[in-house]
Structure formats: structure tokens, C-alpha cells
Amino acid sequence: MSDMALFEGNSLVSSDLFKSLQDVDDNLAGGSGGSGPRRISIRGGRFREMVGGEQVNVKSDGFINVVIVNAAKISRTYYAGQYDPENPSGPSCWSPDTQAPDPSVPSDTRQAAKCMDCPQNIKGSGQGESRACRFGQRIAVALEGQMDTVYQFQLPATSIFGDAKDGKMGMQAYAKYLRAHKTPSIAVVTQIYFDESSATPKLYFKPVRPLTEEELQEAVKLKDTDEAHRAITMTVAQTDKVQAAETPLADDEISIDDIPAPEPKKVSKKAAAAPAPATDLGSILDEWD
User: Fold this and answer.
1) CA dihedral 80, 82, 88, 89 (to 10 degrees)
2) What local confidence, expressed as pLDDT, does residue 27 receive?
3) Are 211 and 142 in contact (CB under 8 A)?
4) Pick from 77, 82, 79: which is nearest to 136 by CA?
5) How far is CA 23 from CA 31, 110, 190, in A?
6) Three-state SS string across 141-160, please?
7) Do 50 and 231 contact (CB within 8 A), yes or no?
8) Domain segments of the chain: what residues?
9) Where does the pLDDT of residue 69 fall: very low under 50, low under 70, confident under 90, or very high at 90 and above?
10) Residue 210 pLDDT more than 50?
11) What distance in Å separates the CA atoms of residue 111 and residue 118, rounded to the nearest whole number?
């Protein structure tokens, strides 16, 4: 299906329902706006379904089709030592919104009162020229054709930021693209696929098709379920392999998959303007194809 059919052929685009669901995309686009959930892991460059810390399925191809039903704001985590897969441990400091450490961070491991003043947020504090404190974002997804189950999906920093190039979009670029067409992410099937040229797992996103009215109603019901909220809640006590009283930390968050990335660059209002109006939409959509 072409992108033109996705946006202009969908009668729900201008509905009040679509407008009420745009709040999830504000988080995806970078706006300020028990035993743990099922998860989709990208360890080893494969999409893996994880239940209770155990792998139950792995996809051999390099893509997965999902519906994004909810999203957290971008978060940050800092690990004082090197990651040891044999002896995994939780982070020393973390923030659920990139503004300040979470209140639950112990005072003896808290790195600063505000993230912007943190020494771990300085270029070069991590490996090479990177920052030691890492970005990440949790989203809640349902697999295409399985709208009764929510999975947690942890996006590494490399899959969040960056401008769209040659039709390839990171999460922020993808969310802004959907928003420019007045289509909430929950209303489409999104294909998540690996950048095969990247040495470490890096993801791109593209729309596949609009949901049917029945599918959309099911997705809306999932959006506010306890499972969806748990999937996007940042609980960083420990990893799957470490005993803890709190919900485990997704193993992707401390693996080499989640490498540091630079701060989101500031752009002028002119540069951040929405894509060209509908009269030029054809050529824009051709570029995404």
C-alpha cells in the first residue's frame, strides 16, 4: 500500500477519535508532553519475544510489524561500570524524563540534581566522544494480528534521534511524519526494521497500512490497560538475571545494543516546520517510498 492511500484514503483522519489519540505521538516525537511485561528484545540484531525473561520466539527476518499503543517520554540511564553479561546489574542513576534523576535514585549514586548539569552528560564522559548517560525510550506495542497482547519495546538512542534520510526514519522523524499527516501512530501498522549497514542494532520505522475500524477500537482499549502502562513505566531496579523486588529492567537497556547518542540537536523554527502542504504531498511520499 502506498503512503498516499494510507493518509488520504483513511476516512478517520479528521475524526475526533484520531485527534484524541495524538498525545502518544507527542512523546514519540520528543515533545514534553508483577514479573514484568512481555517484551520485544533486539539483542543480537534479531527481534525476540521475551516472556518472564525467557525467549519464546525469535524472528529470522529483519523486520517486525506492530501497532504502537502507548509511549513513554525519552529517559536516561547511567551505569558506573562496564556492562558484564555474566553479572548484570542495574544503573547507578536514571531519569524518566531527561530532566532530573528519579526520586528513587539512591543519594549516594545520584550524579547531579539536574540532568543538564550532570558530569555524565558531558561529551567524552563515555566511550570515545560519547556521553556516559544513555538515552532510551519505552513504547508499548501489539503485534499485527494479535491485538490482545501488549509488549514492551525499549528503543536504543540510535533509533530515536536523527533526521529522515532517503526515506529512512528514526522514531522522532517517523512520529513527526505521521503527525504532519494528522494520523496517530496507534491508527496504523508500523514496520520496524534494522539498519543493516549499522554495526550495532539500529531501527527504522515506516507505515504499512491503516488499521481497520475494528482493529483501531481494539488498539484504543489496549492503550489505557494496566499492561500498556506497565510496559512504558520506567522501573530500573535490576535486570532479568538479577533478583529484585521491583519489576526487572529490560536487558536491552544495559547491553551494547543501547549505545550512547548525542543530545538532540536544536533546530530553528523554520527548520522544524511541517512538511510541504498537500499540493506537494505526492513528491514527498515518493521520497519516503
Assistant:
1) 0
2) 74
3) no
4) 77
5) 9, 31, 17
6) EEECCCCCCCEEEEEEHHHC
7) no
8) 3-288
9) very high
10) yes
11) 6
162: phi > 0 → left, psi -120 to 50 → alpha, else beta; which?
left
- What the block records as the C-alpha cell of 182 is 494528522
**188 by DSSP, 3-state: which?**
strand
Nearest to 205, CA basis, from 233, 180, 176: 176
> What is the mean predicted confidence (pLDDT) over 233-239?
60
Report the C-alpha gap between 78 and 62 in whole angstroms.
Answer: 29
**Highest mean pLDDT range out of 35-49, 96-110, 229-243?**
96-110
**Whole-number average pLDDT of the chain:** 79
3-state secondary structure of 63: strand
pLDDT at 287: 44
Cα atoms in the Cβ-side hemisphere of radius 13 Å centred on 267:
11
First to last CA, the chain: 10
Query: Is 0.85 topped by the overall pTM?
Result: no
The grid coordinates of residue 234 equal 520506567
Indicate the burial class of 264 (C-beta count within 10 angstroms; 0-12, 13-18, 19 or more): middle
Structure confidence by residue, pLDDT tens digits, 146-196 = 999 999 999 999 999 999 998 899 999 999 999 999 999 999 999 999 998
Q: At 83, is the pLDDT very low, low, confident or very high (cuts 50, 70, 90)?
A: low
The residue-averaged pLDDT of 7-19 equals 69
Q: Which one-letter amino acid corresponds to residue 110?
A: R
**Please, what sign has the CA dihedral across residues 243, 99, 254, 205?**
positive
C-alpha cell, 103: 526520586
What is the pairing mode between strands 48-51 and 54-58?
A: antiparallel
Of the candidates 130, 113, 108, 73, the one whose C-alpha atom is nearest the C-alpha of residue 263 is: 130
